[in-house]
Amino acid sequence: MAAGSFALAVSFGAFAVLHGVPPGLAVLMSLVTFSGSAQFAFVAAVAGGLAPALGAASLINLRFVPMAATTADALRGGILRRSLEAQAVVDGSWAAAHRADGTIDRDLLVAATLVQWPAWTAGTAIGAFLLPSTSALHALGLDAVFPVFFALLLVDIVRSQPRTRRLGAASACCTALALLVAPVGISMLAGCLPSLLAARRPGGAP
């Protein structure tokens, strides 16, 4: 997981610099935000103004509301310790720690984040300072890392919870179709539509 985060972060660092973000600011963003999808969405949307960029990043990060809710029972201690442990709720760690019965493996969640965060920050620095060119991104295949990362997360969840296959397939199709006409951030939001519709059904069944 650290290796995957590192590769994705190198892609983000180069992507951010190519879109006008100063290298140091890109590294700082990874250090304090540590949310690949929101960071990509922010950089992609910032050309249209700060407000749309913040809006896109905020909408994408709304996914952490249900993710945090499913993790709440696994956290330990008082409010300060639980708040600190909650920082471990990131996409890859949450997917890896999510058991088939819906519960969360707290130790795996925290450990996965502890190895990913420094890898994410270091990867961003390398991408931002050493590889800020379109040719380098294509030559190393880094332009494909971002969509493949989320595809693998989807496959992992579907394999551990077979009942979500139809929902996962619908989300993947919505995202793929949206990518034909919309930027990455908007396409990811489109991929959430099947889940939102399923949540409105009685019992939230997929």
Account of the 3D structure:
With 206 residues, the chain is mainly α. It is built from 13 helices and no strands. The two termini are 28 Å apart.
Topology record:
Layout: H1 2-18, H2 23-32, H3 36-45, H4 50-61, H5 64-71, H6 79-86, H7 91-97, H8 106-130, H9 134-140, H10 145-160, H11 165-179, H12 184-191, H13 193-199
Helix pairs in contact: 1-2, 1-3, 1-8, 2-8, 3-4, 3-12, 4-12, 7-8, 11-12, 11-13
Q: Compute the average pLDDT.
A: 79
Number of helical stretches of at least 4 residues: 13
- Please give the share of residues in helix: over 70%
Strand segment tally: 0
Number of domains: 2
Q: Using the alpha-carbon principal axes, give the shape.
A: globular
Low-confidence regions: none
Q: Gap between N and C termini, in Å?
A: 28 Å
